[in-house]
Amino acid sequence: MNWYTESWSDECKFSIAYDEKIYSEKTPFQQIDFYKGKEFGTFFTLDGLMMVNEKDEFIYHEMIVHPAFVTNPNIKRVLIIGGGDGGTAREVLRYKSVEEVVMVEIDERVFRLCQKYLPVTAGGIEEEPRMTLKFEDGLAYVKKAPDASFDLILVDSTDPISVGEGLFTIEFYQECYRVLRNDGILINQHESPYFTEYAENMKRAHKKIKHIFPITHVY
Description:
The protein is an alpha/beta fold and 219 residues long. Helix content is 32%, strand content 32%. The chain contains seven helices and eleven strands. A hairpin with a 2-residue loop joins strand 5 and strand 6. It is globular and about 55 Å long.
C-alpha cells in the first residue's frame, strides 16, 4: 500500500492511501502529481500539497461560490483567479443569470490535466459558451481589467507561497477593489485558522483586505 502524507503542523500529519500514481509533470510553474485510491478517488497535488480530491471537492467549491450569490442574486459577470481544477467555474455556471465567467489560471497544464484525470471538476467547462479561459498571471490580468467590470471576484488560489504569492498582496486587493462594481464582492481563499502557521497567513491576508474593503467578513 502506498501513502500520501502532508504535514499540517510539527505534531500533525494527514495521510491517505493510494493505489497508483497516475501522472507526474514538472511545469515552468510547479510540480503536478495525480494519484488514485479507493477512499478519496483521484486527487492531485501541486508542489507536494493536496489541492483537490474526488471525495470532498464539493465542500470547498460550493462554499467558495454560493454565499456570494445568496448575498447578491444579481451577479452577472464573474472573474475567477486560479481555480485551474475547474470546480469553482462549474459551480458558478450553475446560475443561469450569470452572463460571463472569466477564469485566469497561471498554469494551463493544471486545467488540461484536470480535464483528463479529474473530469468531475473540469469536464465541460471549456465548452460552456459563457466561459472565457485565460492562461496568464492573475495580478497582471486584473491590472489590465477596466474599472467596475465585474460583479464578483473569486480568488481560488493556492496558499500564499510560490505561484500564489502575488495574490496575497495589498496591490492585488487594491486592483480587485477597482475592477469590482459598487455592490461587487470579493471572495478570497486565505487559509484556515486551525493550525498556527495557517492562521498567521490567514490573519495577514485578512488585515490587508480589511484595509481596502469597507465590509469584510470571514466565513
